[in-house]
Automatic annotation (TrEMBL):
Molecular function (Gene Ontology), one example: 2 iron, 2 sulfur cluster binding
Record gene name: fdx
Official protein name in the record: 2Fe-2S ferredoxin
Coiled-coil intervals, chain numbering: none
Gene3D superfamilies found in the cross-reference section: 3.10.20.30
Keywords: 2Fe-2S, Iron, Iron-sulfur, Metal-binding
Pfam assignment, any one: Fer2
InterPro entries membership: 2Fe-2S_ferredoxin-like_sf, 2Fe-2S_ferredoxin-type, Adrenodoxin-like, Beta-grasp_dom_sf
Organism from which the protein derives: Poriferisphaera corsica
Domain annotation 2Fe-2S ferredoxin-type: ranges: 15-124
């Protein structure tokens, strides 16, 4: 499913976002890039920023908090992002490999200028294909 386009305007892309890819080949088709540094805007979510920069995080429900395939680890910049809502917390519990810093990338919205570091585990690409529903 395609990502639902944002229905609101974003400000300028001034927030540093770094993605750490455990499976660069699976996520980008380019095995050489284990780190991708880019810029996001306040009001954008992490999934949108990843997709804009060629990082194909799974997003089976299209970014509406109805699956857990867009699970990521928010390594740095927790205070720069929104607090998870109850719906997100319920969903993220269904994801494999859950940690204290687990978030759903489609629900993680940038709220301030602090740099953000996101790790995308290797199993992200495979969760949908290997776990039958
Ligand atoms: S894409 Fe389904 S919850 Fe994020």
């Amino acid at each position: 499913m395609h990502m639902k386009a944002s229905d609101h305007d974003h400000g300028p892309k001034t927030v540093k976002v770094k993605f750490l890819l455990e499976d660069p080949e699976g996520l980008t088709g380019d095995g050489g890039k284990e780190e991708v540094e880019c810029k996001g805007a306040i009001g954008e979510n992490i999934l949108e920023i990843a997709l804009e920069n060629g990082i194909n995080i799974e997003h089976a429900c299209g970014g509406v908090c109805a699956c857990s395939t867009c699970h990521i680890y928010l390594e740095e910049g927790e205070n720069a992002c929104n607090e998870p809502e109850d719906d997100e917390l319920d969903r993220v519990e269904e994801a494999p490999g859950i940690q204290m810093n687990s978030r759903l990338s489609c629900q993680t919205v940038i709220e301030s200028e602090e740099p953000i570091v996101v790790k995308i585990p290797a199993w992200n690409r495979n969760a949908v294909k290997e776990v039958p529903h």
